[in-house]
Amino acid sequence: MVVISQLACGGTNFMINRWQHWPVSGNCGATLSFPSLFHILCTPRPERNILYGKRYYAPEDSLILSLRKELFVEDFETIDWPAQRENIAKIDIYTPHSWLYSMVFGMLDTYEPFHSSWYRESALKVCLDHIKQDDIMTNFISIGPISKMINMLIRWLEDGPDSKAFLQHVDRVYDYIWMGRDGVNMQGTNGTQIWDVSYAAMAMIEAGAGTKPEFQEALRKAYSYLEVSQMVESSPKCVQYYRQYNKGGWPLTTRDHGLIVSDTTAEALKAAMLLEENCPFIGSEVKISRERLHEAVDLLLDMVNPNGGYSSYETLRGGEKLLELLNPSEVFGDIMVDYTYTECTSSVLQALRHFVDYDPKYRTDEIWNVLKNGLGYIKQNQLPDGSFEGSWGVCFTYGTWFALEAFACMGQNYNDNTASMQVKKACSFLVSRQMEDGGWGEKFASCSERRYVQSEKSLVVNTAWALLGLMAIMLSVMVVMDDGVGSVAVNSSVGGGCCVHSVDGGVAVGDDGVTDFYVGVTAIAVDSDGILTKRFYREVSKSYSIDRLMMATGLRRAYAEFLINLVQLDTLHSRIYFQSGPWGGTLSFTPPRPGRSQQKVSPTRTGKRSPIITSVGCGMKKCPSDVVPPPHFLEASYPLNVILGGGGIGGMKGMYD
Ligand SMILES: CC(C)=CCC[C@@H](C)[C@H]1CC[C@@]2(C)[C@@H]3CC[C@H]4C(C)(C)[C@@H](O)CC[C@@]45C[C@@]35CC[C@]12C
């Protein structure tokens, strides 16, 4: 197949070379292993081979001529196309062509004038067959926007402008296209619908929406959407066409698209279970049968890679080192096979771990095996500074959040001293990156430079991820509140100063004595690209009052009072006391002293202690000797500055109350 696809194209045709001016270059590729991620991202696709192999030309008309003038600075006819293959703007070269790539294409250039027409014909037939199958399997949406357009062009050329195939393609152009303020745009995927619905449903459940009548309809619809979107059948041809079988899985976007993703399947499965568990009204009309949930588990168990990790669309195939040498894309790295990722693995572990409790009888031993190996895989990914590099969000904050969620779902937390060294290091990493303003901010450049690049100001999304990671692993105390609003989870951190607490009702509370005051209004939502989870944080003030807090968050008075009637903080890893009473005063405490017992805190507070909210201890009484307090954590009295962040528990609840 490799040979066929290479023979089907060549190196010197002007159309192919023209494509090299685009981020996705036009060379044919080395494999047809459908439908790995690199097929979406880059170029080795049969459709290009066909356009080249058949020498399709559009007749020159005035539009084409004027486009040539617009696009090329030099006279089009005089351009030496073969020489342009390596002529790429510096800014676009992320992965330069390898020696192997240049050599192979050099050889193909030489072969091109003498190529065998018979061999080419049969290779093109195979390519066309793959394109047709791609159209059928994706309902003419195709894997991504690039192959979509080229498939469509080929069906136009092969089948004709009035053909059913071409018209079916036209119908699905709108899955990608949208009108933005800057004109017509095409998105990189036909959406992120299932991913979004799963996360949104889980956020609503966390926020307590499951018991609020006004949210029933939305949650019911979310569940129905998951029900209709699950893949119920794998094509019998998936092996023949190099596809991952997809029965039981969920795609990132829609069922029509059909390409399941491991972590989307995991998140959708988790959401379905949580909806059933937390919403009594779910299941009365529409029900995802137990059998279908089993099919989702089967698919996840089947997608595990030998290293214990999970890829996104398919299992790791092919020799990645060799194939990477044939990466033609220039602008992307590590795309030739679907690698394994901390994030995908973490999502799968969370879903499977939840499933074991949901249905303790189904394939339990196999699931535990996958869980154990999966955590082992994640551990291996830890970098010396404690962080985990993410691939699908920015970047170390995102990866570390997912890693911590994986450790947490496997039972590690600070509450009962089960946090491993890896977890401590990961938390230390996050804590060390907390900025003076209390938040976290990691620049996009982290992804390309592969090192943590801090932003000037903290950022909403990064702050949320860091807090979510810390909260996942450090939940330590639950206190039921007297006004029935909810419960409080209080956490302390390894870094010595910053404590991250999560409070049911919309906020997480942290206090490191220098942090600003943030209020999380926590809608879990999806960002403008529809990809990433967000919790919204709003900076309110450095000094605050109940009224401002209420105004900023929409919290009702009793709850706002509770929040700001916090907190006696008995330093690192230690003890939290809650006090009620009028807000005011300062909080004095002694910083942690490595290796020594914690000092008692003497709050200068007014007001009476609540009979209901009692003091609670949370584990360690001794500060571990390796803890170095951050420089700002000095022995002093501080105004009680608090981070209120979007709590993992019940983010939006405060908003409803
Ligand atoms: C290069 C061009 C122009 C288009 C192709 C882009 C697509 C390959 C990618 C656009 C969205 C992606 C990144 C998609 C987004 C969600 C993630 C994820 C968070 C679910 C992740 O965990 C697994 C991989 C993702 C599915 C992604 C894969 C690649 C895109 C579709």
TrEMBL record:
Identify the enzyme class. isomerase
Please tell me one Gene Ontology term that the record gives under cellular component.
lipid droplet
List, in alphabetical order, the GO biological process terms annotated in this UniProt record: cholesterol biosynthetic process; triterpenoid biosynthetic process
Biased composition regions of type Polar residues, renumbered to the chain: 596-605
Q: Which GO terms describe its molecular function?
A: lanosterol synthase activity
* NCBIfam families associated with the record: squalene_cyclas
- Belongs to which family? Belongs to the terpene cyclase/mutase family.
Name of the protein in question: Terpene cyclase/mutase family member
Which species?
Stichopus japonicus
Q: Tell me the classification of the organism that encodes this protein.
A: Eukaryota, Metazoa, Echinodermata, Eleutherozoa, Echinozoa
